[in-house]
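#structure-requests
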Amino acid sequence: MSVEITEYKPLPPLDSFVEFYWTGGFNTGRMPRLSQFVMPNGYVELIIHLTDFHCDLQSGSGWGQSPDYTVIGLHTRPYEVRFRSHVRTFGIRFKPEGVFNLFGVPASLFSERFEDMESVLGHAFRDYCSRLRDEDDIQQKLNLTHQYLLSQLNDHHPEKTYLNYAADLIRSVESASKVEELPEKVFISRRQLEREFKEKIGLSPKQYMRIARLNAINRYLLTGSKFNLGSLSLEAGFSDQAHMCREFKMFAGLPPARFMESVERFIVNV
């Protein structure tokens, strides 16, 4: 196995804005070069490198080492990441609307790209990351992270808005199978909802729902259970199997059956 990821649930009240904390080991076999494709999952990833060995990401027409503290925004296509050595990381998987709630920075700023999070958040963030890297015990890393994010929460005094509720409904898939139902469920006009999604998340509600459905399909595929594509497509809110396969191929680049044949090439964080 070349990729090892362990996830940790955040404590309240941060669980309203953060999906998971996680630790990762990549290219654990120390191959000369490992290339993986990361599937879209509808979350913003903050990746803190724990050693001087980093992954390589594409920027423009070239490749380069990722920053020490890399934030990766929402993607609508798989993106490639390369490892030339064993890379160890600590990560925070943010709900995209939670990035604005915690930091006052819209996730749309990072759409389809990555950024150096230190240049976005400044000295206090760098100090937190330095302390995190110096700490070996995972529970202490989690405690440090909880305290840092809690301080951000207290500084920004966020309140859950209709954007938070709409995004949660979309991620649950079963609760909102049609994007047209959202304005009525969160008591806001469709135009206002569209504007908030575009400004704060960087996608329309419809685009975000399509990624959520892809996640639902991937979650089931990765169980290794036998599946019927027709039944699975209806459960995930698609009109039929053909509709599901078209959507899946559009996001993953492969239809579901072929994707499963080459799943080891992908990092799928559902």
